[in-house]
Amino acid sequence: MKRNPKKQLHVRVFGSALVPDYEAQEQGQRRFVGRHPQHPWPIVDAVITIPARSEYIQHVRDGELIPWDAETAKLCGVFYAELNS
To answer: Is residue 72 classed exposed, middle or buried when 0-12, 13-18 and 19+ CB atoms within 10 A define those classes?
Structure first.
């Protein structure tokens, strides 16, 4: 797990992806990024700010998280399309 403490990712969840909340898991809690904490984990309709961990960057590259700004896309090495206009 590589973490950049100064960088943050601004993302939204795509489709039915269940991306683990790694910080919560490290505390023994079962949570998913961009999901309400009750089963069946409905999507939070908002932009989520998460730490720039290598795991989350990989989820962006895999298309499970959508970058919501150009800086996040650049940090993750993916194409940025202006979706929020």
So the answer is: buried
Query: Is 75 in contact with 56 (CB distance < 8 Å)?
Result: no
Q: In degrees rounded to 5, what are phi and psi of residue 51?
A: -65, 150
Pairing state of beta strands 3-13 and 48-53? antiparallel
pTM of the model: 0.84
pLDDT digits (tens, 9 = 90+) for 49-79: 999 999 999 999 999 999 999 999 999 999 9
For residues 61 and 78, give the distance between their C-alpha atoms in angstroms, rounded to a whole number: 6
In whole angstroms, give the CA distance from residue 8 to residue 5: 8
> 10 has which bridge partners?
49
